[in-house]
Amino acid sequence: MAPVARHLMIHGRVQGVWYRGWTVETARGLGLTGWVRNCADGCVEALVQGEAEAVARFIALAQDGPVAAQVARIDAADATVEVLDGFRKRPTA
Asked: In the chain, what are the domain boundaries?
């Protein structure tokens, strides 16, 4: 099955609560590739890609995130699948 990719903008109390670290661990555990970074506006941005079911599972889990997070909403859009090795944190945008 061909991989899918989703670009996510995660809104709410998602910085300073280990959201990026949680994202890396969760995505790797689901066998996904991509990246995550903080944004200057207080959101967290991510690109997740892999099998459609695993991407959907990640997005469902991301609604809660780590214990200290309070996710208000996730804006998800289709994205182009990129050739990426693993799942990593990127610098703040």
From this structure: 4-83
Cα distance between residue 31 and residue 24, in whole Å: 11
Q: Can you tell me whether residue 90 is helix, strand or coil?
A: coil
Which pTM was predicted?
A: 0.96
pLDDT in tens, 77-90: 999 999 999 999 99
Span 41-84, pLDDT tens digits:
999 999 999 999 999 999 999 999 999 999 999 999 999 999 99
Q: Under CATH, what is the fold of the domain 4-83? A: Alpha-Beta Plaits (3.30.70)
Provide the annotated active-site residues.
Answer: 20, 38
Long-range CB contacts (within 8 A, 24+) of 19-22: 19/44, 19/65, 19/66, 19/69, 20/44, 20/89, 21/66, 21/89, 22/65, 22/66, 22/69
DSSP strand pairing (87-89 vs 70-79): unpaired
